[in-house]
Amino acid sequence: MPITPTAHIWMNGEMVPWEDATVHVLTHTLHYGTGVFEGIRAYETDDGPAIFRLTEHIERLYKSAKILSMDMPYSVGEIIDACKLVVADSGLRSCYVRPIAYYGYGEMGLATGACRTDLSIAAWPWGAYLGDDAVTKGVRMKISSWIRHDHNIMPPASKTTGNYANSTLAKMEALRAGYDEAIMLNKVGLVSECSGENLFVGCGDVLITPPPSSGALLGITQDTVMSLAGDLGYEVRIADLARSDLYVADEIFVCGTAAEVSAVNSVDDRTLTCPGPRTVAIAEAYAGVVRGRNAKYASWNEHVS
Question: Which one is catalytic: 63, 159, 187, 296?
Fold first, then answer.
């Protein structure tokens, strides 16, 4: 999806013109994939733009950095303020926000001890990642031939730039085969997550989402969906799923900051009810809460002003 430039990008404490927000070709993270990042959305609300669950996202950014032993140059509060500044400066009513911490120019080699950590934050308009009709028409899924990272190979709990080479291989394999998205299994063949989303499977009266032990990232949107599903009276379990569970599911949807809540219409050409009733209800509830229409979760909408 093309990027639409805005006026500025925040880099190491300064607002820099978009076209000048560059890094050196010998930037350490460019070579070794050792950055950490977040994907966050700001939505238009009745009280102006609000960044959804901003604090939780920046706290997770810090946890990702800690897993990599990366020293962060700014506090959680300072990064939160910088994200709000970037959104306000953009003038956008809704947008996507991308903070990224990375090892900058100055040292080369696998050791990172002498490397400085740089931090940048950008915001730009971004539509629905899996398509504007993903809630109603759904997306076609393919079980990937690529296996999700094991916890002792690359830490899936850290939202690390290098981890996403794994996801990119799965995504491109699916697209080239004519599908919209990939579902990844772990090394023992259990369902982990999609290339960039968490997965919920409707089986009877229960919604099931894979556990972190499967290699799935603990998603903030996933957590939001679990809360909203409970409010709607749906039972949700975190439990292992086999490939065959996907083929016989009553309904499946995926969720993430970029994809929001998107229905699944088939897995490996096995058709599903799409959109399922729980998918529709949760997607509607999610669309309301991110736009500040649910007083119970008002604290999740962190207003730019």
Answer: 159
